[in-house]
Amino acid sequence: MSADGVALDGPFANQTDPGSETAVNNTSGSLLNPLLINPRVNLTMNIWMSVFVVIMMLSLGCTMEYHVVLQHVKKPFGMFIGFLSQFVIMPALAYGMVHAVGLGGLSALTVLILGCCPGGKVSNILALLAAGDMNLSICMTVCSTTLAMGMMPLCLWLYGRELTDSHTVIPYDSIGITLVCIIVPVAVGVYIKYRSDRAAKIILRVGGVIVLLQLVIGMCIAVFLWGIDRLLSIPRTLILVAVVMPFCGYVLGYIMASIFRLPHNCRRTVSMETGCQNSGLCMSILKLSFPVQEVGTVFFFPPLYAIFQTVEALIFIVLYHVWARKCGKEKGELNLLAALKKKGQHAQNVMNDRDHQPNGGPPERSTDCSDLATPVAVSSSSADHNASGRRLTEWESML
């Protein structure tokens, strides 16, 4: 019998977590908010989260391009790299973290389950903020969630089969509902974008405001339900894992994408998809596999991981935008200097041509009609420049 109140076998059976005596030794569940195990509250939260996911994925679908999605489907190299990062790197990383910090019992099993979960829907928002490839991001989320039906049992069997033989239940119904909540609104958003770009922009703006409000409300509800004191009652080793594991996931995902020489926006996308795990799915597995009263405060590890994975991703995103703005400013200055130099060289050439003309007059005009195309070319160039300016203005207004 482990300190978590669950009978376990295998190499983790005789291990205990430092600090778990006060954190997990309450089988009565006194540290748990009674609302967390209230069926009506759970149903309300599930409905609210489903509506939130539908609106979020519909808005993200309005950013996707139909032909780009087809390119990723026909040449799924980026999705294959994401698959390796999601179901090879993260489970191995979770297994290594379990042994590195000496976790045992249900704490070790919880970390392994979270490491084997597919990417979370938050990764799509983070990829958008990181100026990543949204088409690749959503394709990776859909594929990883679909493949999770087979890959999660396989990964849990490979890395923790001594712990999962008789306890862990894979919630295939929850995975199926998650797939429906992702695929259907995304497909609708792609269709709206394909039919009317203006309608897609309106939905993107309105949906962005709604998603922001729901995130704020969700954080307030989470603080009320979980409580800072309950989150801090988690064993210190689990807190360390919650801090280090997403950071390593982001870094290893970017390195993996860089090794295969993906474009930079795809590298950021793979990084976000690798480090972000579906903590809600992990909590569903724990609820279906073990009574909440027996799980104890280990049940708080997935939401704590979700907090740190979001905070660390936002730090990476801010650093990227600062670096991109600095490099963009330097590049703009170099382009300006090059343009001024080119303009000065052109003026010098004109002066030299005038010096070589008799009596210093203007150069003789050719009698053929080749120069008649010059005004048309200038007009066409001006029109292209104006159109490019209008497109840039539209992008800036949308952002």
Automatic annotation (TrEMBL):
Residues 13-25 have a biased composition (Polar residues). It is a multi-pass membrane protein. It is found in: Membrane. The chain crosses the membrane at residues 47-70, 77-98, 104-131, 138-160, 172-192, 204-226, 238-260. Keywords: Membrane, Symport, Transmembrane, Transmembrane helix, Transport. InterPro entries: BilAc:Na_symport/Acr3 (IPR002657), Bilac:Na_transpt (IPR004710), Na+/solute_symporter_sf (IPR038770). The keyword Transmembrane helix applies. One of its GO terms (molecular function) is bile acid:sodium symporter activity. Pfam families: SBF. One of its GO terms (cellular component) is membrane. Residues 1-25, 348-399 are annotated as: Disordered. Its main location: membrane. The keyword Kinase does not apply. Belongs to the bile acid:sodium symporter (BASS) (TC 2.A.28) family. This is Ileal sodium/bile acid cotransporter-like. It comes from Branchiostoma belcheri (Amphioxus). The gene is LOC109482904.
